[in-house]
Amino acid sequence: GFEILFSGLGEEIETLGYNNQIAHEILNMKGTYSTPEERAQWPFQNARENTAAYLAARGKSPEGDERFVSAYFVVNTDDWEVTRGSGPIPTGITLGRVDVVDVKPRQQRLELVESITSSEIDQAISRDGRIALYGILFAYDSDQIEAAAEPTLAEIAKLMRERTNLSILVVGHTDATGSFDYNLGLSRRRAEAVVNRLVQLGIEQRRLYPVGVGFSAPVASNTTEEGRAKNRRVELVDLAGGRIP
Fold first, then answer.
1. b/e per residue, 100-109, with b = 16+ CB within 10 A?
2. Inter-CA distances, 104 with 67, 68, 79, 95, 108, Å
3. Does the CA dihedral 45-50-53-56 come out positive or negative?
4. Which of 9, 130, 154, 186 is the residue whose CA sits 20 to 30 A from 39?
């Protein structure tokens, strides 16, 4: 059920001589010896070019996504030992490589962006002991703070300059995409990035303590994009005299 986009055999697709063109130029199989994977590519470089077969095709995956497939086959000419201790590949055996690429829609991530003042942050912390902020955005799957976060960070710094006795926990939260351990580390790195930026804005480091909790404290369901957007947040928690390590 696939549409053949290209196919060729032997000298239709290869020039006889050193380094098979499909393997080297199309499939980027360089055949060095630095890793087991690269050693496994070496036989394709020196196989029998006039036996080569290659095709590229387009169709659908079982899930309905557009799927591209390429297949390359060629006969081995030497007893290459491609991984140490595995023994040689028999001469005359057919080598094959198949690549499958599924095209999926780009994921759209909803982010809640809020504009907030130092006074509003102060009121929430004084009332509740904490505040969830959605104006601190990060690059996807990264602890790099985006430029859009600067107004919120400036308001936090302004508040802390006004309230010199205020010390806070900076708590990073993520949604439930990915493993718990990975998100725990990501949320910690994001909290540390916020602390570092506030220090750059003139706030003493001793008044800031980064904490990462991953997706262990959601405020909404992680089963919807709207809920996941609410769970991706940074919270400020008043230490209120509590001790930190």
1. eeeeeeeeee
2. 9, 12, 40, 30, 12
3. positive
4. 9
Claim to verify: residue 15 and residue 56 sit in the same structural domain? yes
Question: What type of residue is 184?
Answer: L
Contact indicator for 111, 65 with CB cutoff of 8 Å:
no
Q: Which domain holds residue 13?
A: 3-103
- The mean pLDDT of 119-135, rounded to a whole number, is 93
30 with 63, same domain: the answer is yes
pTM given for the model: 0.57
226 belongs to a structural domain: yes
Helix 180-200 and helix 150-162, axial crossing angle in degrees, nearest 10: 60
Q: What is the identity of the amino acid at 68?
A: F
Identify the sign of the CA torsion 173, 174, 180, 182.
Answer: negative
The secondary structure of residue 36, as a DSSP letter, is: H
Q: pLDDT (tens digit, 9 = 90+) per residue, 10-48?
A: 888 887 665 677 877 777 777 666 666 777 777 787 778
How many domains are contained in the chain? 2
| Residue 132 and residue 69 share a domain | no
Q: Is residue 112 part of a domain?
A: no
In whole angstroms, give the CA distance from residue 169 to residue 172. Answer: 10
Judgement on whether residues 67 and 126 belong to the same structural domain of the protein: no
Q: In terms of Cα–Cα distance, which of 161, 157, 174, 178 is closest to 212?
A: 174
